[in-house]
């Protein structure tokens, strides 16, 4: 066996050893052609089904020909090919970033356990310098790990088995095995910063520092180790500030400023997929720290973020329509069929009352609910139970067929009708807004 496949086999991550299906990203270029050839050779030893995926970006007149090449190559290797044509929309990202985003969306749809990408040692060096030139932090400078969850689909692992090898080594492998491949003219366009690095910047620096690639690979390994420690610390903080009810901003304020930023960065990435910019992160942290138990709102990636009463909520655009109950009526079984739950409470409604026709509707200004302290407007009761102000106008109210209030969903029954160990209607969607120990 050629030394490269043998070395790849010796250093397999455990997740790859367990994989039952590996899908290789195949552009048709040198690197991806070599990768697929190596995986096809290792198919029996990997104990996994090998397939390929090609993304047709439609950015070059020869793109159809590249797809044809990939089809023929996969047929020759006996490897199934999945392909998809995408529309690349820069929208302020730049054509390279937009193409990558479209490509990774296709990868995320893979039925495989592992997506194998053909990034190599020269790519790693270029990625490090690009991060430095663009002002990247530790995560960016740590460049590309060998294995990581795919951000667009964390159930998938992205595997880069060729990172130890240079492009020259891959070219020698292709020549030895007489592998053909296609060449994208865009890879020579110096208007792209990566291409300038590859063809001008790095060759110049290599003449002055012949060991630069080895030094950069050493630096990247150290940075990845340090990044792992940072991620462990962020996870510890996450467990400290998050509970079953979500993100607790009062606990978050007890962290140091740097740890607050890291916690919020992780939280926003998990919910939105990406931050607007560093200024947004800094301003978000500043406002969230200063408002205390007050309320503030932000828009991010199609979501509304609301901080209220020391909690942070992620809601979809137009969340009011989703949470405002449409007036309706029916029996207990009908409401249960719609997803409502009738849970036991220390003081709830008796079975005979729940057996009649029930209405669930939004709160009205004239509504009053009896409590041990007298009759009160529902919104006052919501305030006393610690319900965030922004959701109070949407809170569901249970009434009888004559429109008399019987209970506030998820919270309490009208004291005139409440009995020991009764039940209260609950919409699970509203559980997130009820404090752990409501008043």
TrEMBL record:
Organism of this sequence: Kingella potus
GO molecular function, one term: tRNA(Ile)-lysidine synthase activity
Name the record gives this protein: tRNA(Ile)-lysidine synthase
Superkingdom of the organism of origin: Bacteria
4Fe-4S listed as a keyword: no
Keyword field contains tRNA-binding: no
Ranges of residues in domain Lysidine-tRNA(Ile) synthetase C-terminal: 358-426
Domain topic, free-text comment: The N-terminal region contains the highly conserved SGGXDS motif, predicted to be a P-loop motif involved in ATP binding.
Principal localisation: cytoplasm
Coiled-coil intervals, chain numbering: none
Known function: Ligates lysine onto the cytidine present at position 34 of the AUA codon-specific tRNA(Ile) that contains the anticodon CAU, in an ATP-dependent manner. Cytidine is converted to lysidine, thus changing the amino acid specificity of the tRNA from methionine to isoleucine.
Entry similarity comment: Belongs to the tRNA(Ile)-lysidine synthase family.
PANTHER family hit by this protein: TRNA(ILE)-LYSIDINE SYNTHASE-RELATED (PTHR43033)
CDD domains according to UniProt: TilS_N
Enzyme Commission number(s) of this protein: 6.3.4.19
Gene Ontology, cellular component aspect: cytoplasm
Cellular compartments annotated: Cytoplasm
GO biological process, one term: tRNA modification
Top-level EC class as recorded in UniProt: ligase
Catalytic activity: cytidine(34) in tRNA(Ile2) + L-lysine + ATP = lysidine(34) in tRNA(Ile2) + AMP + diphosphate + H(+)
